[in-house]
Write a structure and sequence with these properties.
Layout: H1 5-13, H2 18-30, H3 45-52, E1 55-60, H4 62-67, H5 69-78, E2 81-84, H6 90-93, H7 103-114, E3 118-125, H8 132-135, H9 141-158, E4 165-170, H10 183-188, H11 191-203, E5 208-213, H12 221-235, E6 242-245, E7 248-250, H13 258-266, E8 271-282, H14 287-305, E9 310-315, H15 325-328, E10 332-333, H16 346-355
Parallel strand pairs: 1-2, 1-9, 2-3, 3-4, 4-5, 5-6, 6-8, 7-8, 8-9
Antiparallel strand pairs: 8-10
Helix pairs in contact: 9-11, 13-14, 14-16
The structure holds (3S,4R)-3-hydroxy-2-oxopiperidin-4-yl beta-D-xylopyranoside.
The site of (3S,4R)-3-hydroxy-2-oxopiperidin-4-yl beta-D-xylopyranoside has 6 residues, from loops.
């Protein structure tokens, strides 16, 4: 893209006298610079990620995407990948049987295409956020099999060539490494996983297909269960291409075994991605906790990028204003790189330094 605004902006900085550059560097050392459109695009999160050939993504909510320019300004300046926070979940796409609502999902895909952002698809087979017609439909195994196949064919097919990775399977393990009960698991057995991956691959052979989960970042019973399943699926020739490590952490809680654990999956030939990073703090957050959170963002980012086949890191939201954390984890918040007024937090610097190999 030789004529993209990003390239043009970079030239703005070139004629600056050395004194001015020095002043900028000094200012950057004290606070995170609030980037203006004139700022050097190479020093944004997406600038660093582009330079390394990886993705830096954000989960995007439809309401601010369509109504808040501060939100899209940061999204488009800092991120080269997006995930729909809710818009591609089954309850959003097919609220009543056979009647589809593609509006928000289509809007995000169009936005991404207009801003040179990749799209992660999230998610196809999950126990949660299912429409009530499906949850309460009392379907037989054979009916459910047909319903799941149709959902995958329709959804993956609609965005064929536009989604670089799909979370085909989401949250399918218990903490002890056994299979978690769900509509799919209970009625279809573990075989639904291989089937879902095969159907998704047929619908879009170019998309990387993932199993995604939380509390699998450490080497533990849950990640062992997933590791064994992944090995088995690969040995059966099932099109599994990657593992998504959600990475919903508590401040100070990035597991010490995270990098080694990601590496054992990458040693199977799989991509690894951090797919839903946020680091929550008990409110009100102290400056010491915000500093620790910054370190944690850097460590989590380096844990992925330090492993072969790390495809990138996605944060689960941009700003604390719209984070799911306060509504889900009582008393916690402040989990993201931007505060409610879109000021970059110390965690932004941590994430940026994690992406920048020279920081
Ligand atoms: C969350 C969204 O952020 C919320 O807005 C929604 O109410 C519930 O789901 N793991 C996942 C994500 O895979 O889809 C979840 O997203 C967070 C946990």
């Amino acid at each position: 893209m030789p004529h993209s605004p990003r390239r043009r902006r970079r030239r703005v900085l070139r004629p600056l006298p050395l004194v001015a550059v020095g002043a900028l560097v000094a200012a950057a050392a004290v606070t995170v610079p609030q980037l203006t459109p004139e700022a050097d695009a190479a020093t944004t999160l997406r600038g660093y990620a582009d330079a390394r050939g990886v993705k830096i993504g954000a989960a995007v909510a439809d309401t601010p995407l369509t109504s808040e320019s501060a939100y899209t300004t940061v999204l488009d300046r800092e991120f080269n990948s997006v995930t729909a926070e809710n818009a591609m979940k089954w309850d959003a796409l097919e609220p009543s049987r056979g009647s589809y609502n593609w509006g928000a999902a289509d809007r995000l895909v169009a936005h991404a295409s207009a801003h040179q952002q990749g799209v992660r698809g999230h998610t196809l087979a999950w126990y949660s956020q299912l429409p009530s017609w499906l949850k309460n439909g009392n379907f037989s195994a054979s009916e459910l099999n047909t319903i799941l196949k149709k959902h995958i064919d329709t959804t993956v097919g609609r965005y064929k060539g536009k989604i670089y990775a799909w979370d085909v399977i989401n949250e399918t393990f218990n903490e002890d490494g056994s299979m978690r009960g769900s509509l799919w698991q209970n009625k279809l057995g573990t075989g639904y996983i291989a089937n879902a991956l095969r159907w998704a691959h047929a619908a879009d052979p170019s998309a990387k297909l993932y199993i995604n989960d939380y509390n699998i970042e450490a080497d533990n019973a849950k990640s062992d269960g997933l590791y064994n399943l992944a090995k088995q699926l690969l040995s059966q020739g099932v099109p599994l291409h990657g593992i998504g490590f959600q990475s919903h952490f508590v401040v100070g809680g990035v597991p010490s075994s995270m990098k080694a654990n990601l590496k054992r999956f990458s040693d199977l030939g799989l991509e690894v991605s951090v797919t839903e990073l946020d680091i929550r703090i008990p409110l009100p957050a102290s400056s010491a906790e915000l500093a620790q959170q910054s370190t944690d963002y850097k460590t989590a980012t380096e844990n992925c990028l330090g492993v072969p086949r790390c495809a990138g890191i996605t944060v689960w939201g941009i700003t604390d204003k719209y984070s799911w954390v306060p509504g889900t984890f009582n008393g916690y918040g402040a989990a993201l790189p931007y505060n409610e007024s879109y000021a970059a937090k110390p965690s932004y610097t941590g994430l940026s330094n994690g992406l920048n190999p020279t920081a």
